[in-house]
Amino acid sequence: MKHNPKITIILLVMFVVTQFIGLAVLHADIFHLEQEVNGTIETVPNPHLSWIQPPEAETQKESFSMLGSLIFAFIIAISLLILLSKFKIRFILKAWFFLVVCIALFLTIYAFEKLVPFSIPSNLALIIPVIIALPLAFIKIFKREFLVHNFTELLIYPGIAAVFVPILKIYTIIIFLIIISIYDIWAVWHSGIMQKMAKYQIDKLNIFPGFFVPYVSKKIKSKIKKMKKSELKKKRIRVNVAILGGGDIIFPIITAGVMLKTWGFFPALFVIAGATLGLGYLFFFSEKRKFYPAMPFITTGIFAGMILGWIIF
Q1: Domain boundaries, the chain
Q2: 3-state SS track over the chain
Q3: pTM (2 decimals)?
Q4: Per-residue pLDDT reduced to its tens digit, 30-52
């Protein structure tokens, strides 16, 4: 086991909680509103979110076309991130992360407003998420506060997933997961790009897109208890870090969202269960001080969940 059981369980619980928050956000359908038209209730595009509303794939063919654009955008984003990291342009990277975090938090909080059992005036519904998102994003990106970092991670990926789910369908998400898993294997086991980017983001930017849980071993913990405060200030203490990348969190949410809109709630739950089992297998059977691509394990679990959902429902 790469991390101790307590830390492993904490990571898995945070992963599952984020998945369910994602289902709630996607169920809220933030890009549509219900309005009365000629005496009947109709679903119409949300004009307040037209600035970020994604195109919706009506057919599998349209979804395949959009998948190509999505993969191209993914390649461009990764390339820019690597390029900016290489030239150490920290301000632009931090500004980029800050903007993405603000938008994602805004969308998630806005979704929760749609789920509350009372009506919120439209202007206020737009102001509240901004008021909450801006300070949280600022603390996360510029202050490096451990609790705020992990709390915001629970809310960021559901908001991002809400933008991508409308453009994907069953077959396109299957292809996308396979491509991402192959990329993850290459980036971790062959090129080492993933480790280099993570190290740069943590050490130089003080940012990590994903769960970040520092901890010390029992041996060091017992030594700390015996030390005086004056000694602690002089000593360098080795801290272990358990991390789970943002991609490993968001892709299961997107898949569960596609299942939710296509086959319903319970098949989406099967996807979450499969992803959690795949990730759990990796956590419990991985070795210390070794890096592993999580997506192949998560994707395998997702596919198992999708097959079970298709058979049962």
Answers
A1: 5-34+45-222+235-312
A2: CCCCHHHHHHHHHHHHHHHHHHHHHHHHCCCEEEEEECCEEEEEECHHHCCCCCCCCCCHHHHHHHHHHHHHHHHHHHHHHHHHHHCCCHHHHHHHHHHHHHHHHHHHHHHHHHHCCCCCCHHHHHHHHHHHHHHHHHHHHHHCCHHHHHHHHHHHHHHHHHHHHHHCCHHHHHHHHHHHHHHHHHHHHHCCHHHHHHHHHHHHHCCCCEEEEEECCHHHHHHHHHCCHHHHHHCCCCCEEEEEEHHHHHHHHHHHHHHHHHCCHHHHHHHHHHHHHHHHHHHHHCCCCCCCCCHHHHHHHHHHHHHHHHHHC
A3: 0.91
A4: 999 887 777 677 888 899 999 99
